[in-house]
Amino acid sequence: MSSKRSYTVPVLLLIIMVLMTMLIMVYSKLLIAQQKQTTDEGKRLAEQYVLANAFAERLSEGTNLMLKDTSMADRLRGKQLLGEAAFPSLETVGILTEASHRSSGQAVKEAFKPISIAMTEIIHQQNGKMSGIGEHDGLLTQEERTVLMKVHDGAVKMTDALHRFRPPTGEAGFRQMTAGGDWVASAMDAVKALEDTAAALKKQGG
Predict the structure, then answer these.
(1) What is the pLDDT of residue 66?
(2) CA dihedral sign of residues 94, 99, 102, 106
(3) How open is the CA angle 185-118-51, to the nearest 5 degrees?
(4) Which of 87, 133, 186, 195 has the fewest CB atoms within 10 Å around its CB?
């Protein structure tokens, strides 16, 4: 009987050690998977933030060149920059929506709606105020200049706000961005600039 007991304890200890080892391995794999997911999410946010910077900068530079209106070359270059701003505009809506969602606690769909409408008012309307500006001979009209000045002022404010945060380039920074931080406040100031600009353009249309 005593011999049987002497074998039982070591066997039980061995089983416990094997189970603990398996649990540690499973937990480690889970942590690695979660860490990768967090890193990937942060990388996506950082890339969107960089594109939002590009959007604001192109919009600012393009409207500034067109406002100079000193030569057809400036006007054409300005139009080119405004066209380039359209490409990252969707990613810009994405990062600004994420910031609004995190800041306000709204559902993503609710946060997305006003930002998307504001972006459409400025960039994506085929018959909007920015469409067709400068596509004629002679100097810009006073109405065109007013529109460009409003968009330029808004773009400068967006650029200044977004430049307050430098997107990370390493995995630790990506994970930190996923958790939130300073980028949310900077992006929310950019949201305000975007929405204020859209409201000003809409008001001008009466």
Answers:
(1) 92
(2) negative
(3) 55
(4) 87
* CA distances in angstroms from 66 to 59, 154, 195, listed in the order given: 11, 15, 22
Per the listing, tokens 């960089």 go with: 50
21: number of Cβ within 10 Å: 10
**How is residue 106 annotated by DSSP?**
-
Model pLDDT for residues 134-151, shown as the tens digit of each residue: 888 888 899 999 999 999
2-36 pLDDT tens trace: 555 566 767 777 777 777 777 777 767 776 767 77
Q: How far apart are CA 142 and CA 148, in angstroms?
A: 10
Residue 26 Cα distances to 20, 98, 204, angstroms: 10, 32, 61
pLDDT interval class at 85 (50, 70, 90): very high
